[in-house]
Amino acid sequence: MQTSTIIALAAYFILMLAIGLYAWKRSTEDSEGYLLGGRNLHPAVAALSAGASDMSGWLLLGLPGALYATGLVEAWIGIGLFVGAVVNWIVVAPRLRQQTVDYGNALTIPEFLANRFPDKAVALRVVSAIIIVVFFAVYSAAGLVGGGLLFESTFIDGQVMGFSPYMAGVMLTALVVLAYTMVGGFLAVSLTDFVQGCIMVLALVVMPLVVLYGQGGGGIGQMTQTLKSMDPDFLSWFSGLSVIGFLSAVAWGLGYFGQPHIIVRFMAVREGGIPAARNIGLSWMAVALIGALGIGLAGRAYVERNPALTLENPETIFILLANTLFHPFVTGFLLAALLAAIMSTISSQLLVSSSSLAEDFYRLFLKKNASEREMVNVGRVSVALVAVAAIVIASDPESGVLALVANAWAGFGAAFGPLIILSLTWKRMTGAGAVAGLVTGAVVVMAWIALGWNGAFLGGPGVYEIIPGFVAAWLAIWLVSKATRKDAPVLEA
């Protein structure tokens, strides 16, 4: 690797650690500061933090790779996500910001659910915390896989202290994220997310433009001609797309309502800041998604026109273009953007997981009267424990970023999505209905994956597991709430 590339990456790592130290000085004295930044995030910070922690390495690896391999038909995933994000900001964000304060100033999603349904408080806190920790271990592993792929494709050859290049990338990514997350808590995660979101969107704008209009690019016309000559249907929105395939793609948008690491940002925005955060967040997301689509399509055309280039893994097209087309220092910046996408999501997931372990296990069962300082330290230990589990899961170099993200996204979306929406909007919902929806959504998703029905269903194409999980959870909440309504008084905030 070029020295200037290493310098650029080192500067990025130093900046992330410096932000962690700054946040340590500002907001780690109590649980509200460590877990929610004191509920005083600037709208721009909250918006880009939600976006950066949402998109992860999937935005620069998984989505461009899917478009590179299959074509424009994969863009429906991005469209479904954007529509889901719009609804999430309009329906969930303002209500969750207000109701988590009204219901006992809840600091975590499990705590909010417990306060909202006190007759099932323990069950809701325990079950939701288990789901959060399990699925976030998988989700965090997807980010670490991205770090491993980056090292394997770019950084080094041979062993590093006994580790393969892939595992060296996994370990380094985990250690840097652990450093600033454990030290600075939620404020560190949010501020680093803001910086990382800026870096990501700049890279997503610059790279497609350079590929299209740089030396030998030829513009959109040349790209279109190259892709159509390779495959006439490559730029078709519907080629080979069945009704089930279409629904499975756009159903990614259903996942937004149940992603704890995203919706916790709504809880942390300063009072009255949701509208501004929504506008900033959705604008950032639109630009980022268009850039990711451009990288996948323009990257495929570029590789087709340059047969000397080889790409074994489509999910590394961003890395290939960064190494091929740019000055080494700019390459360092672009690789930092990829690391930013990876780290922003991992840090958010680790913090939410640790908050559940600390608040919903340790304080609930082990030491109810624990001091604020003790809870902050327990949260830090919990971050490390979840990170170790994620490293173990990510140790398989054959793991696919998009596949891991898809499974975890569906698990959260089905388990928490209907539960969050209905708990915020339906006053007649009961605690028993909440538990039923939580368990049903998680179990249906895991069973669907175990049976392989997300790959093939009834002799046809697979159905994305979030669809049956989301529908089953919604029905379970509605039916059980109807059946138990007389036994559970309706509570007002």
UniProtKB/TrEMBL annotation:
Gene Ontology, cellular component aspect: plasma membrane
Biological process annotations from GO: proline transport
Record-level Gene Ontology MF annotations: L-proline transmembrane transporter activity; proline:sodium symporter activity; sodium ion binding
Reaction(s) this enzyme catalyzes, per UniProt: L-proline(in) + Na(+)(in) = L-proline(out) + Na(+)(out)
Keyword Transmembrane helix belongs to the record: yes
Parts of the chain that traverse the membrane: 6-24, 75-93, 122-146, 166-187, 194-214, 234-258, 279-297, 317-342, 377-395, 401-424, 431-451, 463-481
Principal location: membrane
InterPro entries assigned to the protein according to its UniProt record, in alphabetical order: Na/Glc_symporter_sf, Na/Pro_symporter, Na/solute_symporter, Na/solute_symporter_CS, Sodium:Solute_Symporter
Keyword annotations: Amino-acid transport, Cell inner membrane, Cell membrane, Ion transport, Membrane, Sodium, Sodium transport, Symport, Transmembrane, Transmembrane helix, Transport
Signal peptide stretch: none
Places the protein is found: Cell inner membrane; Cell membrane
Membrane topology: Multi-pass membrane protein
Protein family per UniProt: Belongs to the sodium:solute symporter (SSF) (TC 2.A.21) family.
Matches recorded under NCBIfam families: Na_Pro_sym (TIGR02121), sss (TIGR00813)
Task of the protein: Catalyzes the sodium-dependent uptake of extracellular L-proline.
Protein's name according to its UniProt entry: Sodium/proline symporter
Organism: Aurantiacibacter atlanticus
Lineage: Bacteria, Pseudomonadati, Pseudomonadota, Alphaproteobacteria, Sphingomonadales
